[in-house]
Amino acid sequence: METNLKGKVAIVTGASRGIGKGIALSLGAAGATVYVTGRTGEGHPAKVPLAGTVEETAADVTSMGGVGIAVRCDHRNDSETETLFERVKNEQQKLDILVNSAWAGYEGLHDGSDFPMDQPFWARRLSYWDDNFFGVRAAYITGVLAAKVMVEQKNGLIVNISSKISEYGSPAYGGAKVATDRLSADMAEPLRKYNVGVVTLYPGLVRTEGIMKYAEYMDLSNSESPQFSGRAVVALGADSDVIAKSGQALWVSDLAAEYGFTDIDGKVYVPTWK
């Protein structure tokens, strides 16, 4: 299967670090032009004690063979998001792929405000809800703006990063993930006739900067690199019949089996909770 995305234009939100960064790097390795967005950049320090900026990710995208373009953008601010899409349309005249990876649900773990980790929902700070649902709203706004471009050009792909909810007890986290899945399904239906696909992507346990902060307390023997999710996005972006998957929630490991790609270490990781 052809995985050369040279000439394709993508936006990846929340890409200063984590899964978003991994996806941006994989898109760059496939030759795509990638607009890397996030809050952390020159003159805008990280809100959490984790490394990574949009400029660093964009430079890595370019070093891997793509074209990385850093855009410092707080997706809580609709005007900044609108400016981003106006810039992409003006500079590229198109948008092929949008990946929504921006999310803030774990920020309290990174800065220490959400400890202990196993506290019941009624003991958590009330703003924990807002941190989790920020990503849903951000994905909706970017989805609206992307759809306007993609409907006009009659093609495109929107990928929303989520997680399969198999346990109960965290209404903010679980609600946000289920809402993201529903967002994809609801966007997919009216966009189908314009050849614009919308899917949810389920990674497994990913070795992000935040996860690695607690590596000594975790079993990472069946964990994925952030680029594994990126390779799934590349495969979807190169699939001329991706519209057949529109509206679905797709596991990265299932896509690896279908399209024949592996993680960067040559392995395929299958989550035990699938």
In short:
Strand 5, helix 6 and strand 6 (196-202) form a beta-alpha-beta unit. 42% of the residues lie in helices and 13% in strands. The chain contains nine helices and seven strands; from the N terminus they run E-H-E-H-E-H-E-H-H-E-H-E-H-H-E-H.
Descriptive report:
With about 270 residues, the protein is an alpha/beta fold. The chain contains nine helices and seven strands. The protein has a single domain, classed as Rossmann fold (3-Layer(aba) Sandwich). The chain has a seven-stranded parallel β-sheet with strand order 3-2-1-4-5-6-7, with helices on both faces. Strand 1, helix 1 and strand 2 form a beta-alpha-beta unit.
SSE series: EHEHEHEHHEHEHHEH
CATH class: Alpha Beta
What fraction, in percent, of the residue positions are helical?
A: 40-55%
Question: Shape, please?
Answer: globular
Number of helices: 9
Helix/strand class? alpha/beta
Largest sheet: 7 strands, parallel
Percent range for β-strand residues = 5-15%
Radius of gyration: 17 Å
Descriptive terms for the model:
274 residues, alpha/beta, Rossmann fold, 7-stranded parallel β-sheet, 9 helices, 7 strands, 13% strand, globular
Per-chain topology:
Blueprint: E1 9-12, H1 18-29, E2 33-38, H2 54-63, E3 67-72, H3 78-92, E4 97-100, H4 107-111, H5 127-153, E5 156-161, H6 171-191, E6 196-202, H7 209-212, H8 226-238, E7 249-251, H9 252-259
Parallel strand pairs: 1-2, 1-4, 2-3, 4-5, 5-6, 6-7
